[in-house]
Specification:
The complex is a heterodimer of chains A (808) and B (101).
Chain A: E1 4-9, H1 13-25, E2 30-35, H2 48-52, H3 66-71, E3 74-77, E4 82-86, E5 91-94, E6 99-101, E7 104-107, E8 111-113, E9 126-127, H4 132-144, E10 147-151, H5 155-166, E11 170-175, H6 187-198, E12 203-206, E13 210-216, E14 219-225, E15 230-232, E16 235-238, E17 242-244, H7 247-251, E18 260-262, E19 273-275, E20 280-282, H8 290-304, E21 318-320, E22 328-332, E23 341-347, E24 352-359, E25 362-369, H9 375-384, H10 412-415, E26 421-423, E27 428-429, H11 430-440, H12 445-452, H13 462-475, H14 494-504, H15 509-515, H16 527-538, H17 552-556, E28 559-560, E29 566-568, H18 579-591, E30 596-599, E31 605-610, H19 615-622, E32 634-639, H20 653-663, E33 673-678, E34 692-697, E35 700-705, E36 717-722, H21 725-742, H22 749-756, H23 758-767, H24 769-783, H25 789-795, E37 806-807
Parallel strand pairs in A: 1-2, 1-7, 2-3, 7-19, 9-16, 10-11, 10-16, 11-12, 18-20, 32-33, 33-34
Antiparallel strand pairs in A: 4-5, 5-6, 8-17, 13-14, 14-15, 21-22, 22-25, 23-24, 24-25, 26-27, 28-29, 29-31, 30-31, 34-35, 35-36
Chain B: E1 3-8, E2 16-21, E3 26-31, E4 37-41, E5 55-57, E6 60-62, E7 69-71, E8 87-88, E9 90-93, E10 96-100
Antiparallel strand pairs in B: 1-10, 2-3, 3-4, 4-8, 5-6, 6-7, 9-10
Classes of the chains: A alpha/beta (808), B mainly beta (101).
């Protein structure tokens, strides 16, 4: 089949990122031709500032070498400015007459620096700051001249000023506003920044309007302001903003409105023509930062690849200033208004300033100066639109102060969750980096950059990437990756998968995998157990429970041990046993020569070291129900003695525990579920660290949820107080059912509550009476007619050949 | 070495395995979704976990102990893990599985 022709106008970061994304997903459908008006292959424009500051060289910042273009069969024309698009004949023409036909055209012409329209703007020595040439011109000027004036105190202006200072010039920054970086910082942080930069011997003239650039022999010699002041200038760098570069598109009759207008698929008004990057206007917004461009590139590539799935819906951006030694971070709307609140920490002497702007219980903006370690956490809270009132009182002290005990000694990177973004430019999460480090055996920052792209754009997260590298390689422990997609077999998230299963009523894994377009024929060891759970929890009694998609423990109803033997834990409802049960257990332990008999933390007895082929006979001899000690399921209901015997007990906690355990027996869940019932607030059953903890008080029962005594100790949170034991069952059952229906597979209740918020849970379980009753009914329905798996297997051994070894 | 009859193919579940024991060996006999059969030494190259108890997908099995992914075809661990477990010849004839041991 003949390949289609894709022509890319613009050899910059947005255009080439789109090509890279395209090659990843559809390497063979296009013959690709790229035109760039600069004489270089694609380079990292963001890194021009470090080049000017002598921290990097031009060679360091090349992203795609000429060899890369050759290897990917891309025809590259450099120093070739396209000046005509003939849409009728689908041909583009470069200034030198080179022509190329296209089936699809990608315009990525970027932006131009905005030059102030003042007299003298055309003098020699007046530059914008956009490309390698500008950078080289500045470095050359610094060799010959002394006085540099940078007009514009924004990110680019300050980076230029810092670089020129390092090049040895005497630099003055002229700014129209009252403080620097007014688009990124509020006044307080802006002033702190100015003070810091002044200590680096940069000079500032604020609230100044440039009137004229004065020349001498054709070269600039001074800058005059509207207030009459004049300062010497041998080099003037204009950094007052950028304008989308859409002249070419407009001349071809493509609809533009302060940028090339594109829809959410990055398509222009000509369906054969796409546009990405700083040249576009998307929903009325043009972006000048790299992260949105890369988001656009990803979306555009899926459409060029004919997948037609991605949608770009705009970006919330965050920025960091790349001036070595200065730490600042800002995101969202940090200036606020009448309807916003602010939380501020200001330590002028220590040089730390943190401000969070809050509206309707959500972070809408943040400014951090001096201590930006929590920037990505705040940014995540902002983007996820998470209600913050529950953590409001320690919010400003950072993530490590929020319910995160038992992690002493872990550095910042270690405290991050896998979903948290490390590299905002490329959208690389910690999980991705860790996974790459582990799976690809990476050892250096450069390797990580190459494999994951993290730190390869603006580089401000390099320190964090380094920490992750160190903690991943050094500690040996790294949490399993829980990136957004369920696994590598699909792009779909857990929530999307659940929704699809509900909507299309998939009842078995093959149908689900096929219907949802899995990339693999039968999934993998990560997605299949999740899918199986989602199917049976969404469609109880209807969906097929596939044993081959269950982890071994759930498949054989026993817990595999390191030597391949199994453990057997019979149920003891509420932790209550009898001489008869104990006698049976003792007999069985002797008969099968069980190497260890142990009392568990969940108040029952564990028989360890049982051979697989003995399991069914042992269960038959025991004649006790399975304790589900092996599953993502209800485990135990731990109880204290309670009012029957205890002199302090206010309620019959033992009976309550037995009732709960019997009511919810056989229940599968996204992860293990542990209950506890204590008969008084002394809480001997440790209700405070259970998924559902019930505490008896004189007037009824208090219910706590989301506790966890595992890797990270989590104290359960108060859900509600009820009067009767029937209510305990109904409220805790409804809670568990909603968790079963909404949590991601393998998320404990605490993780789920963290994600959706306790308010939501209270709303569903406590306030919405009808909803609660319905959820409880759904749970009872799901559990209806459940059979004890041990009994079933002990009785019908011929149907369960899995337990037999074939002897040759 | 000789071909020995193991069991009917139907006794091994699709995407599953059975354990076969000889005098000196324990072998996992696996069946893929498309009814290919493979036989591996029932010990993961990592810590000796019983591979036969793992989840089978594609032509791989994930060890039940620490989730190493081992190729049913070659017995090799998936990168970046390194290791290899022994493979045995296995075939299906007239609906019966035979193993060469």
């Amino acid at each position: 089949m003949q390949k289609m022709k894709l022509v890319v106008v613009g050899n910059g970061m947005a255009g080439m990122r789109t090509v890279e994304e395209l090659l990843k997903i559809a390497p063979d459908i296009y013959d690709i031709t790229v035109f760039g008006d600069e004489p270089y292959p694609n380079y990292n424009r963001i890194m021009l500032s470090p080049v000017l500051a002598n921290e990097q060289t031009i060679d360091d910042i090349i992203l795609n070498s000429r060899e890369w273009y050759a290897e990917n069969n891309i025809s590259l024309y450099t120093s070739a400015r396209i000046n005509k698009i003939d849409r009728k004949n689908r041909v583009v023409t470069a200034a030198d007459g080179t022509q190329a036909e296209y089936d699809r055209l990608l315009i990525a012409t970027g932006s131009k620096p905005f030059m102030l329209p003042v007299p003298g703007a055309d003098l020699q020595g007046v530059l914008g700051y956009r490309d390698i040439k500008d950078t080289n011109d500045m470095i050359a000027a610094a060799q010959k001249y002394k006085h540099a004036v940078v007009i514009g105190g924004g990110l680019l202006g300050l980076e230029a000023a810092n670089g020129l200072k390092i090049q040895g010039m005497d630099v003055t920054v002229v700014h129209k506003n009252e403080w620097l970086l007014e688009k990124q910082l509020d006044k307080t942080a802006g002033k702190m920044l100015q003070k810091n930069l002044e200590s680096k011997e940069l000079k500032f003239l604020l609230k100044k309007d440039t009137e004229q650039l004065i020349g001498k022999d054709g070269r600039v010699s001074a800058v005059r302001f509207k207030d009459g002041q004049e300062i010497p200038a041998d080099l003037v760098v204009m950094a007052v903003g950028i304008r989308p570069n859409y002249a070419l598109a407009e001349s071809a009759g493509i609809y533009c409105n302060r940028g090339i207008v594109v829809n959410d698929t990055m398509q222009t008004y000509d369906p054969r023509i796409y546009a990405v990057g700083e040249c576009v206007s998307h929903r009325g917004t043009s972006y000048g930062l790299v992260a949105p461009l890369f988001d656009m590139a990803k979306v555009c590539a899926t459409h060029l690849a004919n997948f037609g799935i991605g949608q770009y819906k705009g970006s919330v951006t965050s920025t960091k200033l790349k001036v070595t030694g200065i730490d600042l971070f800002s995101a969202g709307d940090f200036s606020g208004g009448d309807d916003t609140e602010e939380i501020v920490l200001h330590d002028a002497v220590g040089g730390v300033y943190k401000k969070l702007v809050i509206k309707n219980d959500k972070i809408i903006g943040s400014v951090l100066y001096g201590d930006t370690a929590d920037g990505s956490w705040y940014f995540q809270l902002l983007r996820d639109q998470k209600p913050i009132h529950e953590i409001r009182d320690h919010l400003l002290f950072g993530q490590s102060s929020v319910g995160n005990t038992g992690h002493a000694g872990h550095d910042k990177a270690a405290a991050m969750t896998d979903e948290m973004e490390v590299c905002g430019c490329n959208g690389v999460c910690k999980g991705t980096i860790v996974k790459a480090i582990k799976e690809k055996g990476l050892f250096t920052i450069d390797d990580v950059k190459k494999q994951t792209k993290a730190g390869s754009s603006c580089g401000s997260c390099t320190g964090l990437v380094e920490q992750i590298l160190a903690s991943t390689l050094g500690g040996g422990y790294a949490p399993p990756s829980t990136a957004k997609a369920v696994c590598g077999c699909t792009e779909l998230s857990h929530e999307q998968v659940r929704e699809e299963i509900r909507q299309h009523k998939y009842l078995n894994i093959p149908d689900a995998i096929k219907g949802m377009g899995w990339r693999t024929p039968n999934g993998c060891a990560t997605c299949r157990p999740a899918l199986n759970y989602y199917l049976i929890s969404t469609w109880p009694h209807e969906a097929v429970d596939d044993p081959q998609s269950r982890f071994i423990n759930e498949r054989v109803h026993a817990n595999i041990q390191k030597d391949g033997t199994y453990s057997v834990v019979p149920r003891m409802y509420g932790g209550v046993t009898s001489p008869d049960q104990l006698r049976k257990i003792a007999d069985v332990a002797e008969k099968y020569a069980v190497p260890m008999v142990k009392v568990t933390g969940g108040q029952r007895i564990d028989l360890l070291g049982v051979k697989k082929e003995d399991l069914t006979s042992m269960w038959a001899d025991l004649d006790m129900p399975s304790g589900y000690a092996y599953g993502k399921s209800i485990r135990t209901v731990k109880t204290c003695v309670g009012s029957e015997f205890c002199r302090f007990g206010t309620q019959n906690s033992t009976q309550m525990g037995i009732d709960i355990e019997k009511a919810f027996d056989h229940m599968w869940a996204p992860a293990k579920v542990k209950f506890a019932v204590s008969g008084c607030p002394r809480n001997c059953a440790e209700s405070g660290i259970k998924d559902v903890g019930v505490i008896g008080v004189d007037s009824g029962w208090e219910i706590y949820v989301g506790g966890n005594g595992g890797i990270k100790t989590e104290v359960a949170q108060f859900l509600c107080k009820v009067k009767t034991s029937e209510e305990v069952l109904e409220y805790s059952g409804a809670f568990i059912q909603i968790y079963r229906e909404e949590a991601r597979y393998l998320d404990r209740t605490v993780h789920w509550i963290e994600r959706v918020g306790l308010d939501y849970v209270k709303q569903c379980v406590v306030e919405d009476t009808e909803g609660r009753k319905a959820a409880y009914e759904r749970l009872l329905y799901a559990l209806q007619g459940a059979k004890d798996p041990w009994k079933e297997r002990a009785q019908k051994r011929e149907q369960f050949k899995e337990y037999e070894t074939i002897q040759l | 070495m000789s071909w020995q009859q193991v069991c009917p193919l139907a006794d091994i579940p699709k995407l599953g395995a059975r354990v076969v024991r000889t005098n000196d060996k324990e072998i996992g006999v696996f069946r893929t979704e498309d009814d290919r059969v493979f036989a591996l030494n029932n010990a993961c190259p990592h810590k000796g976990g019983p591979l036969s108890q793992g989840i089978v997908y594609g032509d791989k099995v994930a060890c039940p102990l620490h989730q190493w992914k081992v190729s049913l075809e070659t017995g090799k661990a998936e990168e970046p893990d390194v290791g290899e477990t022994a493979c045995y010849q296995v075939k299906v004839e007239n609906g019966n599985v035979f193993l060469e041991v």
